[in-house]
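Fold in tokens:
===
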Amino acid sequence: MSEPAANPAATSFPAPTISLPLGLEVLRTYTGVLVCLEILFGGLVWILVASSNVPVPLLQGWVMFVSITAFFLSTAYLTLLVTGLADRINTDWNFLDVFYHFLAVLFYFAAFVLEAATTAANGGAHINQLPNSTETVLCITYPRGNIFTVLTDHQYSINVAATIFAFVVTLCYGCSLAMGFKRWRM
């Protein structure tokens, strides 16, 4: 009796390459903890920017896009690792980890800069009523720059917090990128 022919699909792809533990053990690694922090702080950025009523949609729209997209992609990545499904998908997970975190650092750094610009553009902007006027005409004075935002104190405080958390998330993604690059090169 002859042996059945090998399935070409099973022989043409290498086994998945992943150097992280699967299951709940991934949460005991630095990478697992950083992904959890990325999800937590990224969700805070999303919530803070949304709660400020997005006063500058042109700038903060990108911040919302990045925070929401990275939140869901990081959640999906962690879910694949915790459930062990990453072992069933034949791909180089170490490379995908580096590639994803590189894009996340790049996009989140841009989001951090835009959120900081939105917050900083409010610095020194004051609304004063015109002197000797009986109407409700307001004069907006601003100290410098081509753009300025007029934020309430509450919006300003929320945007400061969102800027800080966007920076923290950028650092978390940067640390994940460095560790992923180290794993990928091993």
